[in-house]
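Entry 12.
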Amino acid sequence: MRTLISTAFISLDGVVEAPGGEPGYRNAGWTFKDVEFLPEAFEIKGREQQEATAMLLGRTSYEAFSPVWPDMKDFADYKAMPKYVVSTTLTEGDLVSNWGSTTILRSLDDVAALKETEGGPIIVHGSASLNQALSDAGLIDRYHLLVFPLLLGAGKRLFSTTDKDTQKLKLVEHEAYANGLQKNVFDVVR
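Predicted 3D structure (tokens):
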């Protein structure tokens, strides 16, 4: 079974919306506007590209990343990697042609089936709504969280507010940086 890893830039109060400056959010760009950049705090992002063998995205994140990431040197390792987009509305005609193989999945059952295939880890970037649904369905195996020392208030959250049984996590890697960022890697305990 493949490992499904959720990776996120997250504020201390749980907001994941528009960390890179995506339009439409009051505090857009909070990852680079409000916290000093320290390269060592982002080491995990390069490691993710080396370790992942596929990327899973929700429709909104796919539509935000696909026009930009294929030509960005920082994300070169993702270009050839198979991508999967969970959407009930996207069509093949909506997919970009310069970002490698992309498959549209229509349901969480399709994601569960993907996890049963041969291969290495699958990384989930952005995709707040998808992350919530995956977590609620028990499909996420690991979280890579870069926690920013910011309280953003309103905004999309990584975790849902669904009334559910406790989901236990095990801290397997952590580090704090001089700029206040914290890296927290959690495995989901089954």
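Annotation: Residues 43-51 form the longest helix (9 residues). The chain has six helices and eight strands.
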